[in-house]
Amino acid sequence: MAKRDYYEVLGVDKSASENDIKKAYRKAAMKYHPDKFANASDAEKKDAEEKFKEINEAYQVLSDNEKKQQYDQFGHAAFEQGGAGFGGGFNAGGFDFGDIFGGGGSGFGGFEGFSGFGGSSRRSYVEPGNDLRYNLEITLEEAAKGVEKTIKYKRTGKCEHCHGTGAEDDKLKTCPTCNGQGTIKTQQRTILGVMQSQSVCPDCHGTGKVPEKKCKHCRGTGTAKETVEKKINVPAGIDDGQKLKYAGLGEASQSGGPNGDLYIVIRIKPHDIFIRQGDNLYCEVPISYSTAVLGGEVEVPTLNGKKTVKVPEGTESGKLLKVSGEGIKSLRGYGKGDIIVKFTIETPKKLTDKQKELLQKFEESLNDKNYEQKTSFMKRLKKIFKDIID
Question: What is the per-residue pLDDT for 97?
Answer without folding.
Answer: 45
